[in-house]
Design a protein that fits this description.
- By secondary structure, the chain is of the alpha+beta class.
- It has a domain of 234 residues: Type I PLP-dependent aspartate aminotransferase-like (Major domain) (Aspartate Aminotransferase, domain 2), CATH 3.40.640.
- Helix content is 36%, strand content 13%.
- The strands form six sheets. Strands 3-13-12-9 form a four-stranded mixed β-sheet, sandwiched between helices.
- Helix 1 packs antiparallel against helix 7, helix 2 packs parallel to helix 7 and helix 3 runs parallel beside helix 4.
Length: 448
């Protein structure tokens, strides 16, 4: 594994609320002096971080132009979604793109295009948004969780082979937070058994694995354009694939079994089943406008994240997420680190999060253990699953999918969202200053 920056010497602070500049190129570190805001002191920051989404007259022209055209749906005479598909496929280095209503739809249609269904098993990580799981249940397949690598927050691909059985029909690695899962290992294991890989790249626009965009290495790659995402149309999604036949199947699945280019009153059908999971012309036009900023915004996030990592690595108990050597570009939809309470005088993570928010630094604890959600057992006890799967398969499911490392990670994780990385470098100094202040006063905070 590699980290974005080499370890730097942490600069000692000399005055309350003052910044200290080191030698040329050294990071700026703020003082950790002063009472924490949670204990009545002044917060490090009173101004908001950059707002999201970013928009201007480009988006206004895109939306009003579509409105005035009277062509609001992708079928028939609409052209904006098709233009976006072509532009996104070219940007990402894929042959085919199918735009969908959202990232969930992209995952759902990918499973449909690969004919995953009842009786099948689909492998996924437990550290992900619930949609990655829900699409498996929507196909009445059985989810099989593989534990997390705590250093990277990604699926621990070293444990993948042990999760595969004769029932396994797909693997869904998640490029969590904009980093990349260990695709060398995942693709090697999948190739041995000829199991298709569906990349959940919903948080990883422009991320790369060995110079290739994630989402283009597996059978399909799925993206989300939901309001929080780095490429944003409020809702929206896309499937990338280099397989023309699979692209046709995914398209038919997302378009109620109708082929691309089918006339409005041509009621011939493809595939075995489908749904209406289409993107609108408004979203297609909006995404083309948003794409004009994507590369510049991504570079800004990368630079700020690298600088912030250099600061935070010097604070005891703060462990920034690492990346695998093969991850040649990180998209930073999230900036994630592990919080070690023992280095903060036993201050519970919940209290740390509360203190950090009080300093004007938005943060959260991230995901809870997805594999332990009660609704999963409800599904497995349902009439459909009782009929579809042997009793011994369902009885052993909980033991097969135990993820103790992920449980520990969920208790330690801290997130900052991607808009926080879009401002000036001073914003990163504020984050480090606030965490440093909490570290210095951790015993007082723990006792309060």
């Amino acid at each position: 594994m590699s980290t974005p920056l080499p370890r730097r010497t942490f600069l000692k602070t000399v005055a309350a609320s003052a910044s200290l500049l080191g030698a040329a190129g050294a990071p700026t570190v703020f003082s950790a002096a002063g009472k924490p805001a949670l204990l009545g002191g002044q917060p490090v920051r009173n101004s908001p971080f950059p707002a999201w989404p970013v928009f201007d007259e480009r988006e206004e022209r895109a939306l009003t132009g579509t409105l005035r055209s009277g062509r609001w749906g992708r079928g028939g005479s609409g052209s904006q979604v098709g233009r976006f598909e072509a532009a996104f496929a070219e940007l990402m280095g894929a042959r085919h793109c199918v735009a969908t209503a959202n990232g969930t739809s992209a995952l759902f249609a990918s499973l449909g295009g690969l004919d995953v269904g009842p009786g099948d098993e689909v492998v996924l990580p437990p550290y992900t948004f619930v949609a990655t799981l829900n699409v498996i249940f929507l196909q009445y397949a059985l989810p099989i969780f593989v534990d997390t690598d705590p250093e990277t927050f990604q699926m621990d691909a070293r444990k993948l082979k042990a999760a595969i059985t004769d029932r396994t029909t797909a693997i869904i690695p998640v490029h969590l937070g904009g980093g990349a899962a260990d695709m060398d290992t995942i693709l090697a294991v999948a190739g041995e058994r000829r199991i298709p890989v569906i990349e959940d790249a919903c948080q990883a626009h422009l991320a790369e694995w060995r110079g290739r965009k994630v989402g283009t290495l597996g059978a399909t790659g799925c993206f989300s354009f939901q309001a929080s995402k780095n490429l944003n149309s409020g809702e929206g999604g896309a499937i990338l694939t280099n397989d023309l036949d699979l692209a046709k199947k995914c398209y038919a699945f997302h378009n109620n079994c109708r082929a691309r280019g089918t006339a409005g009153y041509d009621f011939t059908y493809l595939g075995s089943r489908g749904a209406n999971l289409r993107l609108t012309e408004f979203q297609g036009a909006l995404l083309q406008a948003q794409m004009t900023r994507l590369e510049e915004q991504s570079r800004t996030r990368e630079q700020n994240a690298a600088y912030l990592t250099g600061l935070l690595k010097e604070i005891p108990g703060i462990v920034p997420a690492k990346t695998y050597d093969g991850c040649t570009r990180h998209a930073y939809h999230l900036y994630m680190f592990r919080y070690r309470a023992e280095a903060f005088a036993g201050l519970p993570r919940a209290k740390f999060l509360q203190a950090l928010n009080a300093e004007g630094i938005p943060c959260s604890g991230g995901y809870t253990p997805l594999n332990e959600e009660p609704f999963i057992k409800t599904m497995l006890r349902s009439r459909a699953y009782q009929r579809l799967y042997p009793a011994e398969v369902l009885a052993s499911w909980e033991e097969r999918t135990a993820c103790p490392v992920n449980r520990r990670l969920c208790a330690e994780a801290v997130w900052h969202t991607q808009p926080m990385l879009l401002g000036p470098r001073a914003d990163m100094d504020h984050i480090a200053e606030a965490i440093g202040k909490i570290h210095r006063h951790a015993a007082e905070l723990a006792a309060a």
